[in-house]
Amino acid sequence: MFVICVQSQQEVVKRYIGITKDGYTCYASIENSCPKQVYSITARVLIYMTLWTITTFTLCGNLLVIISISHFKQLHTPTNFLTLSLAVADFLLGGLVMPPSMIRSVETCWYFGDFFCKFHSSTDMMLCTTSILHLSFISVDRYCAVCYPLVYHTKIGVSLIGKTVLICWSLSAMFGFGVIFLGLNIRGMENFDSQVLYCVGGCTLILNQTSGLVCSLISFYIPGFIMIVIYVKIFAVARKQAQTIEDKKKSTSRKRETKAAKTLSIVVGVFLICWSPYFFCSILDPIFNFSAPALIGEILIWFAYLNSTLNPLIYAFFYTWFRKALKIIVFGEIFKNNSSLTQLYSE
């Protein structure tokens, strides 16, 4: 979600119109073509290899999570279904968003047309919002499991999680596609010259100050704050429980719930670390008259994308069930009869 907030006509001109020092543009024969930064062959190859590696790991890692939770019946729990939906969002980010973004980052131009630019930006915003909503609901799920274990299994079921997932995706789609295709991101900027807001060969999501603030609050700051508060509460309750005699003798199931909460808090922490620089920059850049180079924006967005790559690695490191499932999948044992009934952890 490569976003630039717009304050004034002159700032837009500075950012989007004009020629680079080398005089290159995306389309040399077209008037109002966007400036193009030309990298050396060595730099282009290295950048392509790095970004393609990130994309490949994102696709493969999240595909393994999707297969594991979908195939093994023991993993068909409410929390895991939320994790499955989150992995689908990360997988789609790797398949739909990262490849075009990779070409844009290296070539510094957009060659896929205006409509796909809008679709790409909308999908990017939708998947980012989907991820944060899923993580928010996962934190609520873990809070109920750890703090109210006696009623958790009677109140939180697959049906409720299914409705939650539907709400996450529906709200994210309406938000992501509505903002861009309804033009809410540039409302109040209608009097600007169209050539100022647009150059041929560019694909940067322009947000006015109001929409930029609202998007940041909805997609990051408010949900992030809520998740931090919830996990602080979870660990406070878990620590208090651990000091009681009953909790020292708690069942394997209770221990697993607490460990899952700790692991998923790490997932949330990684999300906040990866996305914080990008959203902080989106707030600070207008204050400094949009002086941040475009390269900084590209680096920050790929650092944010890295979150989708790291999630499966966190599962592999902390979840024994994922490591066992991964081994079964890699060695082809998943195709054996009744492999879906394999016990990946003790009840």
UniProtKB/TrEMBL annotation:
Source superkingdom: Eukaryota
Protein's membrane topology: Multi-pass membrane protein
Gene Ontology molecular functions: trace-amine receptor activity
Cellular component GO terms, alphabetical: plasma membrane
Key word Glycoprotein present: yes
Chain ranges of the G-protein coupled receptors family 1 profile domain: 61-315
InterPro entries: GPCR_Rhodpsn, GPCR_Rhodpsn_7TM, TAAR, TAAR_fam
Cellular localisation: Cell membrane
Membrane-traversing stretches: 45-69, 81-98, 160-184, 220-239, 260-280, 300-322
Gene3D superfamilies, A to Z: Rhodopsin 7-helix transmembrane proteins (1.20.1070.10)
Keywords, sorted A to Z: Cell membrane, Disulfide bond, G-protein coupled receptor, Glycoprotein, Membrane, Receptor, Transducer, Transmembrane, Transmembrane helix
Family: Belongs to the G-protein coupled receptor 1 family.
Protein name: G-protein coupled receptors family 1 profile domain-containing protein
